[in-house]
Amino acid sequence: MTEISMARALNEALDLALGADERVVLIGEDIGATGGVFRISDGLLERHGASRVIDTPVAESGIIGAAFGMAVAGLRPIAEIQFLGFSYPAFDQIVSHVGRIRNRSNHRFTAPLVIRIPYGGGIGAAEHHSESNEAIYAHTPGVKVVVPSSPADAKGLLLAAVADPDPVIILEPIRLYRAIKEVVPEGHYTVPIGEARVLREGADVSLMSYGAMVRDTVRAADGLAADGIDAEVLDLRSLSPLDHAAILASAVKTGRVVVVVESHRNGSVASEVAAVVQERALYSLLAPVERVTGYDTVVPLKRSETHYIPGVDRIVAAARRTLEA
Amino acid sequence: MALEFFLPDIGEGLTEATVVRWLASVGATVTLDQPVVELETDKAVVEIPAPRAGVVLVHGGPEGAVIAVGSILVVIGDAGETWSPAAAPAPSRRVHRPEAAPIVGTLEEADAPATVRPPALPLVRRLAAALGVDLAGVTGTGPGGRVTRSDVEGAPRGEGEVERRRLSPTRIAIARNLTRSWQEIPHVTTYAAADPSAILAERSRLGGAVKKMPLEALLIAAIVPVLRGHPAFNASLDGDTLVLRKHYDVGFAVDTREGLMVAVVRGADHLAVAALGDEIMRLAGAARERTITAAEMRGATFTVSNIGAVGGGYGTPIIPLGTTAILSVGRAEDRAVVRDGVVVVGKEMPLSLSYDHRVIDGAAGRAFMADVVAAFEGVGR
Amino acid sequence: MDPLRLLSVDGGLLGDAPIGTEEIRRLFAAMVTARVFDRKGSALQRQGRLATYAQFEGQEAAQIGSAAVLRGDDWMVGTYRDAAAMWFHGYTWDNLLLGRMGDERGGAPPPGVNVMPPSITVGAHMIHAVGLGWAEYLRGSDRVAITYFGDGATSEGDFHEAMNFAAVFATPTVFLCENNGWAISMPRERQTSSETIAEKACAYGMPGVLVDGNDLLAMVAVTRDAVDRARRGEGPTLIEALTYRMGPHTTTDDAGRYRAGEDVEEWRTRDPIDRVREHLKAIDAWTQGWEDDVEAAASVDIEAAVERAESLAPPSPDAMFDRMYARPSVVLEEQRRSLFRDEGGTP
Fold first, then answer.
1. Using a CB-CB distance cutoff of 8 angstroms, which residues of chain A are in contact with residue B151?
2. Is C325–A102 a contact, with Cβ atoms under 8 angstroms apart?
3. Helices within chain B (DSSP H only)
């Protein structure tokens, strides 16, 4: 059993999906010979051929629109958009068609496609390469949105997305692609879409996060533990549907909630989590819900990026505020 | 069976259309989907096809008429058929009921104190409610004076079985106003008894069989001259300044289902007794019907509270905020009284006057009261 | 570039007829039937029984002539103005009516009918025909996909992406542009300064054909070539069918605000149905009685479809929750309960 990175785990998942089901095709920019800008599809063109791993012209609407048509016709396409900030040309396809065909055809046609999109900052990339606008897609009916935070979850969620009868957007945290290694189960397995996971049990405060921020959230919990504060960490994993039951169970248990996201604050997933908690668990709260988020600014470029992306200190400070209440 | 065709919304959000031209006159035979009328909407001129074959019985309006969406545009039936409009249901009309304006004192002074509710989490409030702990009596030890869970757990609890009832909004406002008055104004109350014979005789004289003269009219009419002679009683205290009012807007208390409200007779010094009576009856009726306006309850310069009707005797009336005094008038009852050195049975009307001791001394209070007694006893003379 | 034409305006044959007389009569009857539906659709809207309706009058040959050469299992992706083509390819009148009444069940054609519900957004759907055809090709099937769109849609970025993808990957896709002269109020000249839309195909490396869209026989001929080519795996074709939108954009539009009536009158002389009737008359394959019968039968069919669509009980209030995913999520189930809590009733 060797430890592998998230990039490797995703590659394994794609390889397994291509091998297991001939309806699966990969489609995207530079995913063939190059193996994708993050090398997630490395080696797959060689193993599965050009009719299964399809390099396209530079056209995001074309990629999603064509993958949509393929899915309606019975294939199981896995489309890659290179960065979340490049998904906007395909936004109309996702919102107006991918997320609606089941509804507008009353189940007669469906679009079981997977859209893989690297997201988030922390690697000092160029402008538009560090976006964390997942709330836009979580707000979109008819698609599911999942965000893994570990290699094992990445593989399991991607395989679950391929098997799902509905369109799934999987947002892959760029800065965790190679930052974490762990032993990942071999072979085919799935992580259920729509289920959060308690990463760490705790009694004093619930830290809820997903994707790239999970690593910092766990570190914050470690820091709090050194001061005798017992923090629970919940990895939401699925933003749409959101696991209300897990959120509420943790909120009721500790009475204090800190939601940690990398995205802009206004209308964020953190706002939705806070709203769910106040609607359903207000009388169990010992403190107001805290949101630790990026700001409502454009994500700054490399030299200022660390001021935007919430760090361990901001998470710890927010947790302490809830304990002072 | 005639088909009543109601004008549909034919243009995505239109509300009406104008009849340009009838293409089928009343009595004409039309086939299914044959154009019957040309309409102009905000978006286009359109022809409306007949929704059934038959004879045009009725046009919804002449050329040039504006037809509302949902109104009858045309009625098509069979030859020889007649049609008359069904009894239309009365349009439902929403009755506007003004929110009852609660009052003791006047609205402009009814602002809530800065903090009426000590800061505490919902969780702590619920715990306090369950334990019967009044949060207002708990000193918060949390940040910013917040009441914490342990503050509540350590606080004295109510004993025995209790039922907790939230006050009505009106009652809450009354409670707040009274609390503020009582806390802000150092009250002194002085008492006197007046012989009501004159006032009751005058009341009988003025009142008819049908229309009763309200006692308040006679009381207010008698008291306005007294207020002129004692300007500090028709005043308010604004910080360190006494504001002497040169107008006489006299409040009187009305007992309503929601509690005591004060209605204000404007320019009482300009009204004859009969007019005062009419105005008082009008305001009291409005207060009970809850149609009284906020303006009609604001800005009293002095208040007379007649508690006789409910059997009241002496009491300690609370001065409405924004004024310096209030007179409470109890029920006139038979008492052993000394008249001309002899103890006899006579009527006595108990009077209780509260005044703001910050601006009115005891001697001034007693002098005002003596003049009030004299004025009441001299009514009609 | 002159448009291909096989029937003159007065019905004279200008070349070899691509189909026999019986097939011409069948397609003529279909065009007549489609026009009955179109007029009924407008009337129903004026009677408040349909929401917005988009007339296709004048475009019957472009739609029926092209749909006629498809195989039953081929894909079709059209727009709100393509009811004639969709119906001819198996979409039912009932479904077309239901969709316009505001009922999602209208979007579900019968099993085996590979016609997507009409696209309401302009342009995005052309790419779907690329993906549909491509999937068939990858799976080893010889089904093709045809997409219908207007001249206005060629200004959308998605036209470029669709044409480019189709050509690069040689997908079995037929792009059928019904150039009807108008995109709501904007004339064709304001959409592109190309002389024709067909010539745009050249830049993508695919054949482009200009055809008289009001000529049934020419439509059959060029579409059959394009479909055959796609089925042989030789890639996509762009067809520009020159036609005219005789009515307003939709029932909420007033074309009088932006165009003169003379154009409409001029185009009326090139009516696609009249032209075929003249041709059939000339070869003694038409009688007034026959056409009256066709029209009467169409009316009976369409009135029956209206009756069925209108008598279908409205969807249950919570049907929307069931249409979003294969299985509603826990969150949607909660929202379903809240709907019944707020509106009364039981799930």
1. none
2. yes
3. 122-131, 149-153, 169-184, 197-206, 215-229, 273-289, 362-377
Peptide bond into A241 cis (omega under 30): yes
Determine the residue of chain A that is closest to B140 in CA distance.
A325
State how far the Cα of C229 lies from the Cα of C287, in Å rounded to an integer.
37
Q: How far apart are the first and last CA of chain B?
A: 82
The angle at the Cα of A290, spanning A288 to A292, to the nearest 5 degrees, equals: 175
The CA–CA distances, whole Å, from A325 to A209, A259, B135, B238 equal: 22, 17, 17, 40
Q: Is C158 on the interface with A (CB under 8 A)?
A: yes
- Helices and strands (H, E) in chain C, number of each type: 13, 7
What's the CA gap between C93 and C106, in Å, rounded?
A: 9
Which of C46, C256, C257 has the CB atom closest to B10's CB atom?
Answer: C46
How many whole angstroms from its chain centre is CA C61? 11
Facing C107 at nearest CB: one of A74, A93, A105: A105
State ipTM: 0.94
- Average pLDDT value for residue range C2-14: 94
Q: Which residues, 6+ apart, have CB-to-CB distance to B254 below 8 Å?
A: B260, B261, B262, B263, B283, B284, B287, B288
CA C127 from centroid of its chain's CA atoms: 16
Q: CA of A140 to nearest chain B CA: how many angstroms apart?
A: 25
Q: What is the pLDDT of residue B159?
A: 59
Total residues belonging to chain A: 325
pTM exceeds 0.95: no
The yes-or-no verdict on residue B313 having pLDDT over 90 is no
Residue identified by tokens 């700054």 is A300
List, in sequence order, every residue forming a beta bridge with A55; answer none if it has no partner. A28
Q: How far apart are CA A162 and CA A24, in angstroms?
A: 8
pLDDT for B10 beyond 90: no
**Does the annotation mark A129 as catalytic?**
yes
Q: In angstroms, rounded to a whole number, what is the distance separating the alpha carbons of residues B52 and B65?
A: 23
Q: Say if the Cβ atoms of A283 and B146 lie within 8 Å.
A: no
User: Whole-angstrom Cα distance, residue A100 to residue C55?
Assistant: 25
* Angle at alpha carbon of residue A264, lines to A258 and A270, rounded to 5°: 30
